[in-house]
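Hi P.,

Sorry for the delay on this. The queue was packed all week, but I finally got your sequence through. Input first:
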Amino acid sequence: MSNPPQKPFIYMAPLRGITDALFRRVYCNHFHGIDSAIAPFINPQRKAAFSDKLLSDILPDPNCSLPVIPQILNSDPDGFIVLADRLYELGYETVNWNLGCPVPMVAKKRRGSGMLPFPDQIVELIEQVLPRLRCQLSIKMRLGFQNYQESLDLLPRLDKFPLAEIIIHARLGKQLYKGQTAPDRFAECVDQTKHSLVYNGDITKFEIYADLANRLPAISSWMIGRGLLANPFLPEEIKAKEFSGLRRQERLAAFHDELFQEMKRRLSGPGHLLGRMKQVWIYFIESFPEKKKLLKNITKASSEQKYLEAVRTVISA
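Then the structure:
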């Protein structure tokens, strides 16, 4: 078996409600190996104006610790350009078009992965947008919404456009985040496009990354989402940086504590705070495999004090 690439490029995936600017900043204070992040998508607006409040997650000041690419969900050219122009004025040289979100309320509006069965509409939007776009365009998509043929039909039609890259989550939209990924189907996509591809989907362990890197030798860029929350050291392990065995428990505790305190400062009321932290713990508990049974004490905590007491039983050595 050949060795995986020595210098992979690693993106932090956009996980709505979790990997916002605050999370990205705190993560980078404690862990290494992430090269860039795709921000969670910006909701399309009926009105043309995009205030700083609506764009708070991708304003420059909170995002100085990590290069970020903002994500657009719009399916109409005019709305797309209005937002892209605003992002360009904020200093962004690349925007990402979301053709991957599988959430039913998004997909049924022919947005996100719900647009993949309609390649003519995708191509038409790009044709209208690119001549007016002042920044580069990348795409994040899935292998299809209903079937794998959708990506194989679409990708060759995108070759005529000067896209920065295409990120493909190796699932169908109808799978949501369930079931197995399909690396072999992703490999078929490599042969159907001239564009650089980024692999996304269930990279949760170094061994999984190494196997994918050997199966997909043409791929040097990777996106990690839930695997990064479950094991924040994973990008370091992939890049063989300062290894996680040293001070592992101490670093995990310090990361949690800063994230908790920063969220407490920003969010209004204990309900919002505990709700957000419990979302993180659904994945973060994987960093403490011998204590996974204690997750229920965290998710059932009804007060800040009870939450912190439950957390200490997990994080303490």
